[in-house]
Amino acid sequence: MEKSARPRTALNECVKVVVRCRPLSEKEKNEGYDEVVKVWAERGAVQVYNPKGQDKLFTYDAAYDCTADTQTIYDEMVRPLVASVLDGFNGCVFAYGQTGTGKTHTMEGTAEHEGIIPRAFRHIWAHIENNASPDITHLVSCSYVELYLEDVRDLLSKDCKKLTIRGQELNGFYIPEMTSVVCKSAAEMVRTMRAGNRNRAAGRTDMNEHSSRSHAVFLVTVETAHRTTNRIR
């Protein structure tokens, strides 16, 4: 896939929708399933074959087939977003899909194949180290919550206490009592995320025996203090 051939959208667009298609699993192959999806990466489109009728074609801001690695997806879709966060803008990467489609693989990855989240951690700290100055101080903190059975739980507290979402007219929605852990490296952020993962609610499903049955949000807050101006961003 040629990077230059991939369709681009305006850099200031609020939302981008990207699809990543995984290959058939061994279980699916053993049960005799055939490939039903074709990815047209240069067009940002996905074609779904329908043996009983007309095929369906869906178009996205970008589409990746099973040959695309996470590094490519990060560089093209996530790196600009993280760079914007480091410039003072809010940003979110939201992974959505059916159980077993590969959300955890894309977002967290494995020891051999890093996901988007640990790559973002290293990106943040590389930026901090490259911009180190006696006049600038950085503070990076992490929080981790999950929504499970209509409850919001704090994954970084000892008892996974229940939290309340509140709203303000100016600042929007926030969770006032969630635990915030200050981290001093990308490795500490990974350890914080893994500690929270051990507290997530898991349940057996037909698709994935160890699939989590909750929605989780890992929140990273980056603050920059300028000593000469006393300005905090």
Describe what this molecule looks like in 3D.
There is one protein chain. The protein is an alpha+beta fold and about 230 residues long. The N terminus is likely disordered. The strands form 4 sheets. Strands 6, 7, 8, 11, 12 and 13 form a 6-stranded antiparallel sheet that branches. A 3-stranded antiparallel sheet has the order 2-3-4, with no helix packed on it. The two termini are about 40 Å apart.
Task: Considering the chains and any ligands shown, give keywords for the structure.
3-stranded antiparallel sheet, 233 residues, 23% helix, alpha+beta, 5 helices
User: What is the rounded distance between the termini?
Assistant: 38 Å
Please provide the ordered H/E string of secondary-structure elements.
Answer: EHEEEEHHHEEEEEEHEE
The total strand number stands at: 13
Alpha-beta classification: alpha+beta
Radius of gyration: 20 Å
Describe the global form: globular
Helix content: 10-25%
Overall average residue pLDDT: 85
Count of DSSP-assigned helices: 5
Spans where pLDDT lies below 50 across 5 or more residues: 1-11
Largest sheet features: 6 strands, antiparallel
Q: Which strand-content bin applies to the residues?
A: 25-35%
Give a short synopsis of this structure.
GO terms for molecular function: ATP binding; microtubule binding; microtubule motor activity. With 233 residues, the protein is α+β, with helices and mostly antiparallel strands.
